[in-house]
Amino acid sequence: KIKCHTPIVDTALHVVKAAAIQVLNTPLTVSVSYRNAKQGRLVLDFPGETAPTEDQQKEIERIANEIVKKGIAVTDTEVTAAEAEAKFANLITNNSLFDKMIPKVESLNVVLIEGCVVNCCAG
Fold first, then answer.
1. CA-CA distance, 53 to 51, in Å (whole number)?
2. Measured between alpha carbons, how far is 89 from 83 in angstroms, rounded to an integer?
3. Residue 83, number of CB atoms within 10 A of its CB
4. How many C-beta atoms surround the C-beta of residue 20 within 10 A?
5. Which of helix, strand or coil describes residue 68?
6. Which residues partner with 118 through β-bridges?
7. What is the average per-residue pLDDT within 97-106?
8. Beta-bridge mates of residue 108
9. Spatial contact of 110 and 97, defined as CB atoms under 8 Å apart
10. What is the pTM of this model?
11. Which of 11, 9, 72, 18 is nearest to 44 (CA)?
């Protein structure tokens, strides 16, 4: 299992992803990378032919900040892929649990942002 360099960056990426899903209607992550203890990058499978507009970017930022301000719970559970599918089946939309990959590990972390997103995590 791969661990990120800092849980703060990992959690921030999950919060931004939750906001992006709402604004862009795209639950699939192509890649997530950690640059350093304060920066990360989230690449989404965006259905449009152009990059998100400035208004969409501002709305993603607004929703992400709202998640933080509201103190919405972010939980991390270690389970097998089969357990994750069973436990979180009612929360999974458009394959948002595994994104573009199905992990080939015995156990994985599943991050749930209550009311926003559930997603497997390598961090």
1. 6
2. 10
3. 14
4. 24
5. helix
6. 112
7. 67
8. 79
9. yes
10. 0.78
11. 18
